[in-house]
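User: Show me a protein chain along with its predicted structure.
Assistant: Here is one chain, sequence first, then structure tokens.
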Amino acid sequence: MLKAERFAEDSYDWISCAEARIELFNDKIKGQECLLKAEERVNSSVMAIGCAEGWKSINDDKKAKECMLKAEKLAKNLYDRDSCVEAWLEMFNIKKEIIDTNNPISKAFGYRLGQKFEIIPTTENEKMQDGTPCYQIKPTKTFRKFNDYYVLITPKTHLIYSIQARFFRLDGGASKEKAVVFELLKDKYGYENVVDNDSIKIRNRGIMLFTTASDTGLYIVYADKILHEQAKNECISIEKSKTDSSDL
């Protein structure tokens, strides 16, 4: 063990030393020392989760949760965020949704993906074609020729998972407007993130443009995949609570 510790370099090495100290020798004191050294070298979400698991193994929930919060901050992609969600559930039976706060696709028209949306009596409520409610918003500044602006929210927690705007003109011109807007999006978010010539995708978030068949309408849609899944799960939960399953 002493030789292993002499050769330990990164967080993974020190986590392994801590596990060995605890599991092989039941030496919690030395195990804690190794975990502290592992924490000092954490530079990824997965490393932080490893430290959290180490602290949890010796029943130090406070330190384990501190490491989990660090793991959330270091999460860079969907795999990292999924790993954080699983770790919270396995270690603490806490169901969390990790919002991608570091994603460049974060806001539009004065509203932010993941933002808590307050529904007030005067809020205009419409429905999408599939029946999903959407709420009309007033942007801080209107964008080009777009007329209407909406947000879609998770039904229980009221987090914005989609921000949308619509351009509509009876005399057409939607396809021309789409070409201009898409060039602006590529300049802002990078040509390397272009998908299918009409959308931008960065990790779990995307921006999509589509026109109507008559060329009178253009829609721009900002969406967060993880929050969209949360919205679906909340819808199921609401419907379950309203249903008597005793006869199933």
